[in-house]
Structures are given as structure tokens and as C-alpha cells.
Amino acid sequence: MSRDFEELDYRKTALGELILRRRRMLSLGGLEIYEVKLGEAFLMSSLFHEVEESLARLGLGELAGERWDVVVGGLGLGYTAVAALEHRQVASLLVVDVLEPVIEWHRQGLVPLGGKLTGDPRTRMIHADFFALAKSPGGFDPQHPGRRFHAVLLDIDHSPRNLLHPRNAAFYEADGLRALSAHLHPAGIFALWSDDPPDDEFLQQLGTVFASARAHVVTFPNPLTEAESASTVYVACKATDRTG
Description:
By secondary structure, the chain is of the alpha/beta class. The protein has seven helices and eleven strands.
């Protein structure tokens, strides 16, 4: 196989065929790119990671205090998780992914950021369905049922409307968001990446559960189109506990 294109892993999963590949883009001076496909859809590319990093920056930027326990839903190539670890206040990082091969890629060093995540003692990776854990009373940490977190950063579906699986839709309704909110500390943050423009209807759903909700449009250069592209990061804050 050409060194300009290499398939690093191929797995059949319940969600479809999962492929990790590496290629050199000669049009960009031989830049090495890692890409992930699920079925016919491109899940992620190392060529575009600004919004994944902004998800951590914008979400954690709303927090106060000195020690934060954080959940990242969706591991991917690791950009959101690594950006979260750059905040010294992060005391623990729980990364949840339903695709076990993705976790293995990081542990085996098949992706560039794997060593940063697996080598940081604050990080623990969990093979599980984020959406099932979000609606469960026990929450995200199977070792500590009922544990609450200061922030949940989510990057799984393409958007609240463009889903990897139809069963995920319930999470983006008020009841699903309310179940998630129960796993957050007072004044905790829920932040979500979306590849679509801001969705007023979804913002209203967030507003029925959280004390505040905003949509940030994040622009970034797209070398493939030689223009700017844009995605959305939603940031919602849980109410403070006035009884305390």
C-alpha cells in the first residue's frame, strides 16, 4: 500500500463499518491526516479540530472553582479531551465512547494524541453508551454511581437533528436534557458540538432545563475549499443551588 494512503484499522460494529486511515495530502504539502469513517459518513478528520478544541475551551471557560470533574462524551481523535486536560483545574476526566475500537486506537498509539490521554493520570476511558448513562440514575461513572460532575462536553452526533442513530433523538428533548442535568453539580456546564448552524428550537429546549443557554458560532479555515467553514458550540449552565 502506498505510504500516501494507509488503512490502519477496520472493524465491523453495531453502528456500521468503522475505518481509521492515514493519508498524506499532496495538495497541502504532504500534510499527514488521520480520518475516521463510520459506514458512508466521515466522522472526523485531524485536518479539522478547531471546533473540538473550542468545545472544551468554551465549556470549561464558564466554570469557577479550582477542581473540576469533567465528562467527555465521544472520544474520536481525542482533541476535545486533550484540550480539556490543558486546564490545570481539571482534577479528573472521564471519557465515554460506545465504540471500543476507538478507545483501543488511543491505548495502542495508533492516533497521534493517544499518548497524551493514556499518559495523563487524570484520564479514565469508559466503553459505554453515553446516552444510556446520561438517562440512568447511576450516571457516568460505573465505579461511583450517582457521582456528579462540573462539566459534560459532548461530541457524538453531527447535530441535535443529524444523528448517528435515531435512538439518540430522545436525549435532545427536555426530558433527556433534564436527566443529564441531574448528573451535574449546581452551576455545572453542558456543552455540545454541532456541525449545523444554531438551532433556535434546540436552544429553547436547553432553556427549559438550564438557567442559561447560548450558541457560539466557531469559524475556522478550510484548506479544501480555500474558505472559512463554521460549526456551533452550545453552552448551557445549570442553576446554582440556592438552598445551600
